[in-house]
């Protein structure tokens, strides 16, 4: 049995998670190398097993940041292979009720975290600064989520709950943590950002503005309203986006998005592009770590999996023109996956940053 919280660096070179050892070995960090001919895993156990609520974050230099709870504080360290054992570099600690790591930063070397309070949330840089943990910004309200809106690591989107409503806001690290609105579809709607792809500007959101909670999409900086495709509201499944195709320039409608599709019978892979207005659903490879994966710029979806015979596997999926997915099998032979459902339907402060245009006060558009 293994934990499925699997985090991949922005450049797709490394991943990390907590794995569960055999017998009484307990939980331990495991780093996967993904940018070689074949993936391989390196265990990074410490002097004792980790607690299952510890968090790990891979860096692009191959080290893994770990966040551990120790009494009333959270201790942060870097882990790395050191001969037959594990090297550890302490980074400091923050005393607080709860601290969570943010998704990997675009530069691959910095790491950020949120400290959650009852009335405010503080943003910290926990690695990549001048010294130990560094307080960067204080945001009124309770913030969760986290998505980077640009490749420079300057604009960070958070879902903020304030006065009974949740709205996505943007924190500008180049302006001292200045916070402004990002999503405000209607004045009284709850509008969350689930995924952002900086190259194309594609945003995948969840909002109850249409009357029920549903998925929609918009474009960063666009004046067009958020659209809510019918194909992203299947009657018998819930959808969670986990990866978007990079390198699409200013072509958000051609940007492929991968979803975890949860049904009563299990989890499937969903692939959608705004321009095609349809959600294709496929069985993932055996042992898929459901909800984990990455896209390459040339359109290959890579899905990590673990089986008794393959402890570290990466299936590669491509869509042909007719919508058939091809996933390499464990022995290297291609195996077709059936389409299970086909509903029709310089210094930061000196560089001007693109100002996000809030997708606000615009009518909701429903599309097929």
Can you walk me through this structure?
- The protein is mainly beta.
- The chain has no helices and 33 strands.
- Strands 22-23-24-25-31 form a five-stranded antiparallel β-sheet, with no helix packed on it. A five-stranded antiparallel β-sheet has the order 26-27-28-29-30, with no helix packed on it.
- β27 (301-305) and β28 (313-319) form a beta hairpin.
Question: What is the compact description of this entry?
Answer:
0% of the residues lie in helices and 50% in strands.
- Estimate what percentage of residues fall within beta strands: over 45%
The parts where pLDDT drops under 50 for at least 5 residues are: 328-354
Largest sheet: 5 strands, antiparallel
Characterize the quaternary organization of these chains: single chain
Radius of gyration: 21 Å
Q: Cα distance, first to last residue? A: 40 Å
Describe the strand arrangement of the main beta sheet, using strand numbers: 22-23-24-25-31
> Got a strand count?
33
Tally of DSSP helical segments: 0
Computed structural class = mainly beta
Mean of all residue-level pLDDT scores: 87
Structural shape: globular
Helix content: under 10%
């Amino acid at each position: 049995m293994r934990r499925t919280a699997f985090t991949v660096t922005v450049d797709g070179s490394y991943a990390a998670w907590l794995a569960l050892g055999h017998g009484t070995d307990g939980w331990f960090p495991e780093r996967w190398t993904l940018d070689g001919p074949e993936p391989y895993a390196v265990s990074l156990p410490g002097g004792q097993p980790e607690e299952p609520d510890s968090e790990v974050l891979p860096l692009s230099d191959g080290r893994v940041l770990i966040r551990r709870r120790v009494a009333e504080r959270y201790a942060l360290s870097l882990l790395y292979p050191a001969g037959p054992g594990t090297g550890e570099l302490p980074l400091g600690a923050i005393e607080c009720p709860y601290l969570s790591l943010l998704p990997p930063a675009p530069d691959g070397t910095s790491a950020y975290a949120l400290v959650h309070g009852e009335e405010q949330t503080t943003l910290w840089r926990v690695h990549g600064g001048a010294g130990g943990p560094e307080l960067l910004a204080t945001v009124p309200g309770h913030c969760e989520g986290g998505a980077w809106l640009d490749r420079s690591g300057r604009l960070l989107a958070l879902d903020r709950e304030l006065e009974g409503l949740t709205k996505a806001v943007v924190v500008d690290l180049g302006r001292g943590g200045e916070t402004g609105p990002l999503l405000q579809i209607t004045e009284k709607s709850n509008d969350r950002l689930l995924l952002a792809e900086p190259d194309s500007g594609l945003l995948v959101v969840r909002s109850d503005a249409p009357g029920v909670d549903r998925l929609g999409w918009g474009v960063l900086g666009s004046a067009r309203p958020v659209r809510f495709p019918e194909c992203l509201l299947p009657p018998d499944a819930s959808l969670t986006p986990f990866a978007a195709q990079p390198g699409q320039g200013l072509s958000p409608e051609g940007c492929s998005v991968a979803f975890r599709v949860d049904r009563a019978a299990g989890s499937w892979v969903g692939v959608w592009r705004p321009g095609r207005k349809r959600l294709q659903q496929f069985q993932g490879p055996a042992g898929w770590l459901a909800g984990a994966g990455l896209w390459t710029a040339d359109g290959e979806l890579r899905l990590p999996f673990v089986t008794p015979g393959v402890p570290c596997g990466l299936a590669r999926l491509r869509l042909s023109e007719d919508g058939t997915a091809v996933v390499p099998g464990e022995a290297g032979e291609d195996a077709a996956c059936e389409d299970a459902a086909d509903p029709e339907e310089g210094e930061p402060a000196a560089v001007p940053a693109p100002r996000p245009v809030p997708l606000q006060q615009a009518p909701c558009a429903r599309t097929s």
